């Protein structure tokens, strides 16, 4: 595991460099996309490079990490809509080249299985962008998730719903209780994992991720087993590292 400590803007540039290098080497690369605050600067940087240098996503494909269950198709916090707004529409990416788990499917288990098949049919994810929850989740694999899990329905912890209430006008009751998420086993099959964490609130989770024992109680610790994992931290997120 490679750990880099820098300013949030420098971290975004490093993550965007990794995406750009991949796209230049392999224009039809498969990118794994996280939602939430952590990747926003990276998406800003990629949008800037697309506009100013013509960095092209035209042949690339994208797979989202997760989705809330039951949010209306036009809900602004539905992850599909967030991803379209934050990255897809800004880099000239055809929306149909980016997929997410279908949180509105009638048969959610079937939607999860279909999603796994789509990722496999695309040849797997080349580079997966990740954030980390204060409780150590990646994707929405909350503490206690099987380290071998695949895309499935999960119940969000109270902690995660409180953390994400800021996107729902501060109303924790407005945050869905369930989500679909790529499993830890799914995420671990991506060829390069790039995790971003900033702020003191992430310090304990980052300490566990980098220095803790591998444990389902801190799901991100599975990344210690990955052959190519990059962890990008600001000083505050790194403040509990030995
Ligand atoms: C989002 C996701 C989550 C977030 C995590 C951190 O698609 O999978 O694991 O990355 O909850 O969220 P932020 O970045 O908002 O602190």
UniProtKB/TrEMBL annotation:
Domain Glucosamine/galactosamine-6-phosphate isomerase: start-end pairs: 9-225
Pathway(s) of this molecule: Amino-sugar metabolism; N-acetylneuraminate degradation; D-fructose 6-phosphate from N-acetylneuraminate: step 5/5
Regulation: Allosterically activated by N-acetylglucosamine 6-phosphate (GlcNAc6P).
PROSITE patterns: GLC_GALNAC_ISOMERASE
Function description: Catalyzes the reversible isomerization-deamination of glucosamine 6-phosphate (GlcN6P) to form fructose 6-phosphate (Fru6P) and ammonium ion.
Annotated PANTHER family: GLUCOSAMINE-6-PHOSPHATE ISOMERASE (PTHR11280:SF5)
Protein name per Swiss-Prot or TrEMBL: Glucosamine-6-phosphate deaminase
Lineage of source species: Bacteria, Bacillati, Actinomycetota, Actinomycetes, Micrococcales
């Amino acid at each position: 595991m490679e750990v880099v400590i820098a300013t949030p803007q420098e971290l975004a540039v490093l993550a965007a460099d990794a995406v750009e290098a991949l796209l230049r080497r392999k224009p039809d690369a498969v990118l794994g996309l996280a939602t939430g605050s952590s990747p926003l600067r990276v998406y800003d940087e990629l949008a800037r490079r697309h506009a100013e240098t013509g960095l092209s996503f035209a042949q690339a494909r994208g797979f989202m990490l997760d989705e809330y269950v039951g949010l209306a198709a036009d809900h602004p916090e539905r992850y599909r809509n967030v991803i379209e707004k934050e990255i897809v529409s800004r880099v000239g990416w055809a929306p149909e080249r980016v997929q997410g788990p279908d949180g509105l499917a009638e048969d959610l288990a079937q939607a999860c299985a279909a999603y796994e098949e789509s990722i496999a049919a695309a040849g797997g994810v080349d580079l997966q962008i990740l954030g980390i929850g204060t409780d150590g989740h990646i994707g929405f694999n909350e503490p206690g998730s099987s380290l071998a899990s695949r895309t499935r329905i999960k119940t969000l912890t109270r902690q995660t719903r409180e953390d994400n209430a800021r996107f729902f006008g501060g109303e924790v009751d407005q945050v869905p209780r369930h989500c679909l998420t790529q499993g830890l086993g799914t995420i671990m099959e991506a060829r390069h994992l790039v995790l971003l964490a900033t702020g003191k609130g992430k310090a304990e989770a980052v300490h566990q991720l980098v220095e803790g024992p591998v444990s389902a109680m801190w799901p991100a610790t599975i990344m210690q087993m990955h052959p190519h994992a990059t962890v990008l931290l600001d000083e505050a997120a790194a403040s509990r590292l030995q």
